[in-house]
Design goal:
heterodimer, A: alpha/beta, 8 helices, 7 strands, about 15% strand, B: Aconitase, domain 3, Aconitase, Domain 2, Aconitase, domain 3, 5-stranded parallel beta sheet, 17 helices, 19 strands
Amino acid sequence: MAKEKFDILRSTCVPLPLENVDTDQIIPARFLSATTREGFGENLFRDWRYSKTGELNRDFVLNNPKFSGKVLVAEKNFGSGSSREHAVWAIYDYGFRAVVSSFFADIFMANSLNNGLLPIVVKEEFLKKLLGLIQKDPSTEINIDLDKQTFTIVSTGDSVKFAINSYKKECMLKGLDDIDFLLSIKSQITAYETNKSLAK
Amino acid sequence: MKAKTLFDKIWDGHVVRSIKDGPDVLYIDRHYIHEVTSPQAFNGLKERGIPVYRPEKTIATADHNIPTKDQHLQIRDELSRNQVERLNENCIKYGIELFGLNHEKNGIVHVIGPELGYTLPGMTIVCGDSHTSTHGAFGTIAFGIGTSEVEMVLATQCILQPKPKKMRITVNGNLHKGVSSKDIIMYIISEISAGGATGYFVEFSGSAIRSLSMEARMTICNMSIEMGARGGLIAPDETTFNYLRLLPAIPGIKDMESAINQWKTLTTEPGAIFDRELVFDAEQIKPMITYGTNPGMGMSVDDTIPITDDKNKEASSSYLKSLDYMGFKPGEKLLGHSIDYVFIGSCTNGRIEDFRAFAQIIKGRKKAANVTALIVPGSKRVEEQMAAEGLTEIFKNADFEVRQPGCSSCLAMNEDKIPAGKYAVSTSNRNFEGRQGPGARTMLASPLTAAAAAIKGKISDPREFFTE
């Protein structure tokens, strides 16, 4: 089934200068009882966004009117812990289209790519610099060119290449879906089963 | 020919097709599902109007959100009840075997899979749950996936996966008394950090690993995700085969001994190359406890909290935020620190051996008055065995609350929540902020360390109980 395409994204960023942001923080388990994919953005970072009594936590970046944009920038090991895809649905539903970190947890990375959320891995020094710039000037814009695999800080012209395997890149550029691809090679799957005598 | 790792042997044998500069199409032998991460995948099948391709290869259970009290009654929480009902409907509609709530074989997915003989050496196994790595203890490639991937497996029995790098972690030597497999894995994670194995699939080897029972090996592989690894596996050996020989029946296996002969080839060949190798000495390992909000923040129970997370720098703001959440300070000693809750259970330590270990210390004693202790068996079978061996009696006599099976307080999706600000010593796998309930402060430990804490009402060294 067709998904939203991703080609070029120019946006301001939301800084989250924290390491090891796990998926329990992104979307706490008590919000996983839904049976659809929609509406998780409301509870994104729930326990950081709201106090225990339900009031807005003014210190948290999502509640700071100075910061907005479609790109979330966080420190190393983002998305660790639970495999819940709800974490990616929540980030996407909130309005983000890319997440930048120095490395992501494997399952989070796969889930992002399967939902049109682009995970961008940059070197630690670049990440620190980027976070510093955004925090100093929230109007700092970045430009992501998926086809060229470049991430550029518009004001300084600093540009880095990021990695993505060409299959996934094609899927994101064209809004293609893995299941359509797998269904299209069904005969190969059946042939594999016959070779291994796995068929029913 | 080039020497192959066990991981390569299994992976390469399951590649249906390789995509140039892309992932492999990997065939999946066993798919486990549960109520929380499957409904959206079934919705996807309905929208596409396609069936489940190989329903006999998928096994379902309800475990994550179910209550652990009065399971025979209707689930009170409407959303949880709805999720469990959707699972029931989907399994009936698509012809999937379900060990649902109140089924005599119900339990946590990573406990029932092995105990019912659905996890076998050489398999590829996935589940929409990160602790699927547990099944690697049998010499399988087992890993957690997201819901989009659950849908892929339901639709085609395949998944698209880039091949991870390979790491070998060797643990040699003998464990001290009072130290268990939970301490081994917590020690390794504390040494390499919560992201230290990201991008790798880990093979565990060495004499200390070989000496472990299957259940102890499952604890090790279970927590390999907590250092970021895609999964962890251990080559099958006589311990594995004896475990399988003792199971009542194994679905799909007619001649056990000929199957075992095939499984004996599942080893890493001498000279095989890993991308990274680490070696640890079991004798250096003491009972462990965590002091922070990720599993990498662990130390020996008698140690002091490190001053910084990076020896060469001042403590990072993430590190200080984490200690602040826990109400701890750098340099503080935890031994003797008062606690409020003890939780024994989960896919990490909710098996019969874990409760036997716990009972070693509990037997003939009472829990401390300041502690609320929750005992949650990993499955109905474990629950029955606990009763048959007299463990349930021991726990009740010690004033512990013994519950019915489920994931329970490990992720606190149901009512089993630790109140805000309270300290819990838990045998589960994650000490994340709010993991056991909003504001809850979790300290991960082995069943022995948890038992010692429950009896004394404070963080204690379980080794004391073995020298008395």
